[in-house]
Amino acid sequence: MKNTFLWLLVAGFALATFACSTPPVIRHRVSGAHMKSINVTFLGRANQAKDEWEKSKKELKDEQAKSDLLAHEAKLADAWMKAAQLQLKKVELAKKMGTLPLGMKLDKTPAQAEKELEMAKKYRDYTRQLAKFNKTQRDLLKWKIYTAEAKYLEEQVLALHKAQAAEAGKYSKLDYADQSHRVRRKFLILESDSDKLAAELKTLQKDMDANWNPGLTKTTGAAPAPKACPPCPDPVPCPKCVAPPKADPPKFDEPAKSPELKSPTPAPAPKPEND
Questions:
Q1: Which secondary-structure segment (H or E) carries 60?
Q2: Which of 75-84, 186-195, 225-234 has the lowest mean pLDDT?
């Protein structure tokens, strides 16, 4: 009886392990040693797929970095909504009393408190949807990586057959094409879900008043351009620091020159008359 119980326990554990285990996404791979014999001229498309694979890895890393920030923003949104609820309760209690205790002030009117609570709820919903969208994006990028990897392996096999390598017979082109199709199909399904979430986010953004931000500071459009300052007056130099200007030398008016008198031409002497 005891042995039977142990066998049943082992069988149940094995079944549970088999049911929970999932097959690897990439089932068919290519040996790197087999690719060394291929001339690089046959690997153009394979290298392009490899570049896309590396690019997708970087995109996933960038998207994962947003997760902590979005989770923190969701906590802030929850805290803002709780504060708005407490504020509205405070306004209602003050209204019921009619007078405020000494030193207590109301920062907002009942209408403003209700408006802030409404906006806090909308922003909380928005941050939750944003975190959900981020998770979908991470899943999408993971399958984008799988898709690029599968395409890279498929192009490697095609290069082996195109180069008529001795190892080409070990790889079925159909198996690798099916693998690429299967992985890409999953990626396209996730891409469709991501597009739906993106549309829902846009709807939530429109639902929130564009003139209110999470701090509930109302903006009135673009800030007016600052007026140009008048030109600064020229600085007055210190008389002690500036040397006095040099005096110009005195100018004297020269006397007008009198016109030169020409001496009269002496008249010729009279000639003696001939006797």
A1: helix 44-97
A2: 225-234
Residue 149 CB neighbour total at 10 angstroms: 22
H or E, element range at 17? helix 2-20
Residue 9: DSSP 8-state: H
204 vs 57: CA distance, rounded Å: 30
CA distance readout (Å), 136 to 3, 65, 195, 207: 48, 14, 10, 22
Contact call for residues 197 and 136 (beta carbons, < 8 A): yes
- pTM for this entry: 0.58
Encoded amino acid at 265, one letter = T
Per-residue model confidence as pLDDT tens digits over 15-34: 444 334 456 888 888 888 88
| Alpha-helical runs (H) found in 103-172 | 110-162
DSSP state letter for 23: -
Which residue is listed with tokens 């119980």? 5
CA angle 181, 183, 187 (to 5 degrees): 110
Cβ atoms of residues 204 and 125 within 8 Å: yes
Q: Tokens 């929130």 correspond to what residue? A: 208
DSSP 103: T
In SS3 terms, 205-244 reads as: HHHCCCCCCCCCCCCCCCCCCCCCCCCCCCCCCCCCCCCC
